[in-house]
Amino acid sequence: MKISILSIGNEILKGTIVNSNTAIIGKEFLKLGITPSFQATVNDDKNDIIGILNYITSISDVIIITGGLGPTTDDLTVKTIADFFNLKLYKDNSVVENIRKRLQHRAIDKAKDVIVSKQNLKQAYVPEGCEVLQNANGTAPGIFIKVDNKRIFLLPGPPFEMKPMLIEKVIPEINSCIKEKIYFEILTTVGIGESDLQAKIDKISGENKDIEFAYRAIPGTCELTIYGKNKNTVQNEADKIRKILGLSVLNKMFNNLIEEVAYYLNKRRLSLSTAESCTGGMIASKITDLPGVSNFFKGGAVVYSNELKTNLLGVKPETLDKFGAVSQECAEEMINGLCKNLKSETGIAITGIAGPDGGTDDKPVGLVYIAVKVTDKLIVKKIIFSGNRNIIRIRTVYSALDILRRMLIEN
């Protein structure tokens, strides 16, 4: 089954919005064991849309089109698709009623009946023979067409409107006609670069021709996807890799590093606090992205200045004078003062030079000291990261959380 995704919208190509729909669709299809084979983005232009349709209809069994279903004059998708397949448009009264209800829901005066404008009424015209997919989150309906042995889905552009239609209608329809599935396991690794990870996997699984591997690196972590046509083969290979890589792979119970850290903190009933200099609160932000962290997270301090390092954390002025703020000695006093003052059993303290300025020969840009304490055990790790300011800060965040994770597991 060949699946293509077509995104329509000038704003995507201009970069004013990010095309998250393609990622959402890909992830949902991966759960079925299939992946799209082609994706493209075009302007809200009839000739551009027809040009790409001439190609993708020749290579696709399923075409998913997002965007261009709105009420404005530049929303050309429905009319263009109907013309392309020689389908007439008609006004669907169920869509008119859904539009009216949506507009009524948004109205300030709920007692006054709204009138569906000519612009909104444009969205009620759909191709003959299609299945209308009512939109519970907007006025533009989705449309499902079977034509020339192809399945074509027109879905709204806003992700919060598109995704429910995708899950409720598209996924079941596609799942019903899948003949051959690809099974997969996703392993999230930490502390291993993409090239080093591939080298390790080649040694572990280089002889296995029944599976394939895909790598996706982001600063701090790397995602390894194992593919194969046999479910047991894929599962066995994933288990083998997990065993060999050990703590470099997150437990399969968890989707990300924060979830695993939270699990062990809750399990051991330990509290956590953070003190951050060059990361400016990024670790605390990552932690509080996860619901329920109030069970263990007491809070964090952004101690950018030496004055705050001394006044809030008790870092000695003589330590700063002798060793500097970016030093093992300062990081150690930061973590001890943090855990003492906030009465936390565990803590993370960060001090470093994220750049682009401030580096010296002795202390280059990218130098970071990460201090982590779990009850009576303390580790201060010196790392020199490469990359720009943002990448250095992100890598610091993941490295600090990974050090805490390993300490919680090992002790």
List the helices and strands and how they pair.
Layout: E1 3-8, H1 10-14, H2 21-32, E2 38-42, H3 46-59, E3 62-66, H4 77-84, E4 89-91, H5 93-106, H6 118-121, E5 125-127, E6 131-133, E7 142-147, E8 150-155, H7 159-175, E9 183-190, H8 194-205, E10 211-218, E11 221-228, H9 231-245, H10 257-268, E12 272-276, H11 282-288, E13 297-302, H12 306-313, H13 317-323, H14 328-341, E14 346-352, E15 367-374, E16 377-384, H15 389-410
Parallel strand pairs: 1-2, 1-3, 3-8, 12-13, 12-14
Antiparallel strand pairs: 4-5, 6-7, 7-8, 9-11, 10-11, 14-15, 15-16
Helix pairs in contact: 2-7, 3-4, 10-15
Structure commentary:
The protein is an alpha/beta fold. 42% of the residues lie in helices and 23% in strands. It contains 15 helices and 16 strands. It has helices at residues 10-14, 21-32, 46-59, 77-84, 93-106, 118-121, 159-175, 194-205, 231-245, 257-268, 282-288, 306-313, 317-323, 328-341, 389-410; strands at 3-8, 38-42, 62-66, 89-91, 125-127, 131-133, 142-147, 150-155, 183-190, 211-218, 221-228, 272-276, 297-302, 346-352, 367-374, 377-384. It has a six-stranded mixed sheet, with helices on both faces. Strands 13-12-14-15-16 form a five-stranded mixed sheet, sandwiched between helices. A hairpin with a 2-residue loop joins strand 10 and strand 11 (221-228). The chain starts with a strand and ends with a helix. The model has no long low-confidence stretch (mean pLDDT 94).
